[in-house]
Backbone:
């Protein structure tokens, strides 16, 4: 199939390459000419601006967006609209908030443009392993563009979740679960690191993946990280969040669903950004005041 791909970052660039390998005609666009040239080197057709991209696509156009959630998606959509025709298809493959996708679907439908949301998981490994695709939209539209999903995903790695918004909802919760899993692994290795046995974290992460109930791809990545830097001494313990964990917690609160593990895992990320937190200072001061416990001074 022919499609336009806007956004050639960590995932978008590899997606373009995988699609070309799968026999699709990809017209690639990004903010930087360097990214477009890299996609061209892998077989994509370059488009250095949106008019060029739209002009290179036969109608009805299929355009896949891989841009950051929020205002960036809205800006690209508004920039594209004057160049689109009724019946064209926009697929948001980024990590947009699912309620935004519901609104965008209704907004675009009023202008004759079809919309799908596609939660995409696989990271930088998707080129080799394929991407897990969680898709929202109309069934007829899903079947129409299914060859694209089939190429991007591994076997059984894509599915229609429901109407517009459902794909991004499932991806949002997927990332919330990921927060909790990563936090559990991090705490476990922290306990092991503090033991008196001088344990080998890389060896343990490899061992746990051999038939253990906690085996996972995340543990494979942990083993890889420990092989590159056994003590992780080159890494600062500062952990960002990209929004999906927060949205998952908001959803849990709105639906009255208890989600303590995911919630605490997000708060631990906040904690990682305050190595000398004021809250910890207050705790130390209170212990000193009521019990005379010693405090460490700078």
Residues:
């Amino acid at each position: 199939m022919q499609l336009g791909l806007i956004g050639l970052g960590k995932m978008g660039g590899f997606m373009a390459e995988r699609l070309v390998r799968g026999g699709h005609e990809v017209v690639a666009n990004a903010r930087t000419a360097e990214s477009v040239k890299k996609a061209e080197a892998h077989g994509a057709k370059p488009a250095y601006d949106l008019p060029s991209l739209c002009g290179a696509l036969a109608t009805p156009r299929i355009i896949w967006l891989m841009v950051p959630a929020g205002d960036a998606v809205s800006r690209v959509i508004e920039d594209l609209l004057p160049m689109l025709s009724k019946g064209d298809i926009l697929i948001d493959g980024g990590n947009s908030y699912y309620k935004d996708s519901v609104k965008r679907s209704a907004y675009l439908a009023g202008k004759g443009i079809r919309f799908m949301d596609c939660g995409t998981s696989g990271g930088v490994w998707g080129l080799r392993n394929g991407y897990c695709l969680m898709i929202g939209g109309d069934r007829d539209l899903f079947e129409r563009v299914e060859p694209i999903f089939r190429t991007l995903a591994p076997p059984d790695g894509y599915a229609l979740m429901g109407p517009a918004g459902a794909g991004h909802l499932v991806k949002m919760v997927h990332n919330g679960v990921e927060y909790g899993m990563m936090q559990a692994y991090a705490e476990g290795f922290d306990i092991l690191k503090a033991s008196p046995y001088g344990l080998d974290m890389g060896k343990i992460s490899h061992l746990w993946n051999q038939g253990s109930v906690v085996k996972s791809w995340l543990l494979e990545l942990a083993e890889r990280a420990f092989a590159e830097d056994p003590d992780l001494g080159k890494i600062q313990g500062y952990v960002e969040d990209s929004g999906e964990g927060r949205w998952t917690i908001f959803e849990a609160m709105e639906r009255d669903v208890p989600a303590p593990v995911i919630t605490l895992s997000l708060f631990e990320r906040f904690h990682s950004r305050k190595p000398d937190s004021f809250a910890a200072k207050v705790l130390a001061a209170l212990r000193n005041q009521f019990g005379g416990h010693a405090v460490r001074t700078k």
The mean pLDDT is 96.
